[in-house]
C-alpha cells in the first residue's frame, strides 16, 4: 500500500467494473477464427480497391503539383502519371490509406461497400 | 488442464489443431478480453480486436519459437492490435475536439457491459490519459496484480523502469481522481 495513493488503495480489489464475457462467447470466437485463416489479413480487406485508386490519384495530384511548381522555378518537368503510380509500392499506398482513410467521404465508402456486397 | 507445451504440440499437429485452438481461446481468451475492455472501454471494440488478435495467433502459431511464454506472446499481439485501434480512435477524437478521458467517461456511462460506479469510471478516464507504456504497466500491476518479474518478461523492460513507470502512473491517477478531472 502506497500512502501517497489513498484513493487507489481503497479501490484496489474492487475489480475493474466490467462484466466478464460468457464462456459461449469464446467457443464461438474460436470457431469464427478457424473459419477465417485462408482469407487475407483483415486490415487490408477493410479497404476496398477504389480507396487504393483514390489514394493513388490524390498522391498523383500532389506530386504533379510539386513537379509543376519545381518546373516554374528552374526547368519544366512533366510528371508521367503511370510512372508516378508505378513508383509507389503497395506498402506506401496502404500506409497512405491507413493514415488518411478518415478523410475519405463516408457516404462514398458506404456506397462502395453496398455496391460490392450487392455484386458479390 | 494441459500445459502450454502440450497445447503447442497439439496446435502444430493438423489432427489435433482445431480442438487445441478452441482450448487456447477458452483458456486465455477471457483474460485477454478483460485486458481489451480496460484498454478500449467498449464491448463491441474489444470483441472485434480480440478476434483480429486470435486470427493472427492462429496464423502465426507455427512460427512461435517459444522465446517467451505463450500468454506473453498473445498478450503482445493483442495489445498491438488494441494500440492500433486506439490510434485510429484518437485521430477521430482530435477531429471532434473531445479528449480521451472525456470519451471514456461518456462511453462507460452508455456501456451496458460496465457495472462500475462513478469513481471506477473516473479511474478508467484517468488511466486513459496516461502514455501507452505507463498505462500498460499500471493495468498489469493494479488490475491483474502481476509481479514485476512477469511484467518485465511481457514488456521486455527492466523491473526498475517498470517500478518507476508504475509509481508515476499511480501519482498521476491519484491527482486526477482527487481533482475529478
Commentary on this structure:
The complex is a heterodimer of chains A (120) and B (181). Chain A is built from seven helices and no strands. In chain A, α4 crosses α6 (90-100). By secondary structure, chain A is an all-alpha fold. In chain A, 10% of the residues are buried. Chain B has 181 residues and is mainly alpha-helical. In chain B, 77% of the residues lie in helices and 0% in strands. Chain B has nine helices and no strands. In chain B, α3 crosses α4 and α5 (100-110) runs antiparallel to α6. The mean pLDDT of chain B is 92. Chains A and B meet through α1 and α2 of A and α2, α3, α4, α6 and α9 of B.
Instruction: Tell me the overall shape of chain A.
Output: elongated
Which structural class best describes the helix and strand composition of chain B?
mainly alpha
- SS summary, helix count of chain A: 7
Largest interface: A-B, 32 and 44 residues
* Mean of residue pLDDT values of chain B: 92
Produce a short descriptive summary.
Chain A is mainly α. Chain A has helices spanning 6-11, 23-34, 42-45, 49-73, 81-87, 90-100, 106-119. Chain B has 181 residues and is an all-alpha fold.
Index terms:
heterodimer; A: about 120 residues; mainly alpha; about 0% strand; elongated; B: about 180 residues
Secondary structure elements and their pairing?
The complex is a heterodimer of chains A (120) and B (181).
Chain A (H helix, E strand, L loop, with lengths): L5 H6 L11 H12 L7 H4 L3 H25 L7 H7 L2 H11 L5 H14 L1
Chain B lengths: L3 H8 L5 H24 L2 H18 L9 H27 L3 H11 L7 H11 L3 H11 L5 H8 L3 H21 L2
Helix pairs in contact in B: 1-2, 2-3, 2-4, 3-4, 5-6, 6-9, 7-9
Amino acid at each position: 500500500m502506497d500512502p501517497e495513493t489513498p484513493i487507489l488503495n481503497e479501490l484496489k480489489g474492487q475489480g475493474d467494473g466490467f462484466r466478464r464475457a460468457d464462456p459461449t462467447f469464446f467457443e464461438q470466437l474460436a470457431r469464427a477464427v478457424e473459419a477465417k485463416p485462408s482469407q487475407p489479413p483483415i486490415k487490408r480487406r477493410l479497404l476496398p480497391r477504389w480507396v487504393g485508386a483514390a489514394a493513388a490519384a490524390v498522391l498523383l495530384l500532389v506530386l504533379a503539383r510539386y513537379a509543376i511548381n519545381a518546373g516554374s522555378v528552374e526547368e519544366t518537368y512533366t510528371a508521367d502519371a503511370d510512372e508516378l503510380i508505378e513508383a509507389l509500392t503497395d506498402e506506401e499506398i496502404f500506409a497512405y490509406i491507413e493514415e488518411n482513410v478518415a478523410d475519405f467521404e463516408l457516404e462514398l465508402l458506404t456506397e462502395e461497400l453496398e455496391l460490392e456486397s450487392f455484386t458479390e | 488442464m494441459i500445459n502450454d507445451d502440450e497445447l503447442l504440440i497439439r496446435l502444430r499437429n493438423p489432427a489435433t489443431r482445431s480442438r487445441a485452438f478452441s482450448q487456447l481461446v477458452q483458456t486465455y481468451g477471457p483474460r485477454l478480453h478483460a485486458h481489451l475492455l480496460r484498454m478500449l472501454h467498449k464491448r463491441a471494440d474489444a470483441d472485434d480486436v480480440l478476434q483480429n488478435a486470435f486470427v493472427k495467433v492462429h496464423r502465426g502459431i507455427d512460427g512461435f519459437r517459444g522465446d517467451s511464454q505463450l500468454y506473453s506472446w498473445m498478450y503482445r499481439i493483442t495489445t498491438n492490435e488494441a494500440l492500433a485501434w486506439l490510434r485510429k480512435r484518437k485521430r477521430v477524437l482530435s477531429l471532434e475536439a473531445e479528449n480521451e478521458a472525456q470519451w471514456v467517461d461518456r462511453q462507460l456511462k452508455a456501456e451496458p457491459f460496465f457495472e462500475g460506479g462513478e469513481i471506477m469510471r473516473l479511474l478508467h478516464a484517468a488511466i486513459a490519459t496516461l502514455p501507452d507504456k505507463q498505462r500498460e504497466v499500471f493495468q498489469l500491476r493494479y488490475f491483474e496484480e502481476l509481479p514485476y518479474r512477469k511484467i518485465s518478461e511481457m514488456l521486455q523492460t527492466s523491473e526498475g523502469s517498470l517500478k518507476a513507470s508504475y509509481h508515476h502512473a499511480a501519482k498521476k491517477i491519484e491527482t486526477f481522481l482527487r481533482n475529478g478531472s
